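agent: user wants the structure for Ribulose bisphosphate carboxylase large chain from Brassica carinata. delegating to structure tool.
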Amino acid sequence: MFTSIVGNVFGFKALAALRLEDLRIPPAYTKTFQGPPHGIEVERDKFNKYGRPPPLLGCTIKPKLGLSAKNYDRAVYECLRGGLDFTKDDENVNSQPFMPIYKSQAETNEIKGHYLNATAGTCEEMIKRVVFARELGVHIVMHDYLTGRFTANTSLAHYCRDNGLLLHIHRAMHVVIDRQKNHGMHFRVLANALRLSGGDHVHGTVVGKLEGDRSQLWAFRGIFFTQDWVSVPGVLPVASGGIHVWHMPALTEIFGDDSVLQFGGGTLGHPWGNAPGVVANRVALEACVQARNEGRDLAVEGNEIVREACKWSPDLAAACEVWYYK
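agent: tool returned. relaying tokens verbatim.
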């Protein structure tokens, strides 16, 4: 598809710059793609994630490199045991232990997930890693779909569907393609292509340290959800990158119920430890969801809602002091 749409035309000497803002895919062509391995409904069924405030909570283990296996194991366990739904390998991590997942599942009576990074130099090696993850009992794996490219991602998505694995998509390298406003392509084009190629989660951000803004996301949502996707399953958006408890009202308002809010340093940077960082995020999320359901305006009253929740949660109060936000 991209060979025809954004092939040689971007290299013509007569063009100073060219940018693809959007594309609409005919339903007949859309039907030729499998799309996400499973989709939103199947994922909620697999993890039994009903009853809590709808957005799921995750954490990227930090630092991205340098932790021993024992310390990595401890960080995963404390985060999942503390109340997170997911933990995640950073995109630079390739192999870490998974036993703390089973321990945290037994102690919380919940199904937990850890995104094993299966990205590799060849499709064959990538499939070997996914097979290994499946043998260990991991429920979800991760792929850098722009560095691994679409054909490799589609092969991985097909394997995940056939073998009951969910596929988390990291968008590393996207700014090389979409950051320039007069050349390249908008991220919504990459997101649409990803949904066709296959992925149950896809990264996107509005607040925090990574590229992205609110107007861009609203435009992306409008295109993403008005496209006729026929039978192609839905994708969970994932918010991550420099986010913390003070961002929770905006994240809850913008991303809605079917989303994953993924804090890295915003969890592990808590002064009292990893588990209190999880509690702080969980309390802030539940306070914001309750306030939204009561009809309060999160855009206007967001900071006040978080401050009110601090009265009942010392963990959240400590987090709010660390990430002071006017």
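agent: one observation worth passing along. The longest helix spans residues 274-293.
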